[in-house]
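Students often ask what a holo structure prediction actually looks like on paper. The answer is less mysterious than it sounds. You provide the chain, you provide the ligand, and the output is a string of discrete structure tokens encoding the 3D arrangement of the protein together with glycinamide ribonucleotide.
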Amino acid sequence: MPSKTKKNIVILISGSGSNMAAIVRTAQQQDWQRQFGAGVAAVISNRADTGGLQLAQSLGIATQVLSHKAFDSREAFDAALMALIDGYQPALVVLAGFMRILTPGFVNHYAGRLINIHPSLLPAFTGLNTHQRAIDAACTEAGCTVHQVTAELDHGPILAQAAVPVLPGDTAETLSARVLVQEHLLYPQAVHDWLQSQP
Ligand code: GAR
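The corresponding structure tokens follow.
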């Protein structure tokens, strides 16, 4: 039986939004509305000049921009972001290339309903430049991780991972492209599994 509960998903982006689009397309193709009573209610970007916003609109999703540059402090930005997100009464907040460090207050507010995708096989290579660092460390495998977000950056409980080989001659760009293909499969599946696990 489809759930009657309305489970709104809010996706936060900063860039091209390809993971966001993969989730939206999967939600539409698999009819998460019917399966779980769930849908992507809005995409919010902290940058106005990102292609991800147009992509979301082309998929029929409401978009919002909240520039971090309009705020004096990280706390003030996060408080405004929380107010914006909470207007959608989200069951789940999905970080999809949202390139902001979040305050503990924000993370605690969404405890248990805030997830992220990170382009490495965590716990290896938290932070930035993950692909170049994997190449420099002569790793034979790289990949991506979906995890719950906790106050410590890129350290929350792992929900799902996908690995790819690091090939001879790889650059950060070629490795990133190989990992991104897996991100677009892994993240929609992880959101699906999260929805399925909910009462
Ligand atoms: C993705 O590779 C994602 O894993 C990464 O940013 C990219 C966003 O691409 N996220 C992080 O590095 C988070 N620390 P997209 O905007 O096309 O989805």
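The longest helix spans residues 172-197.
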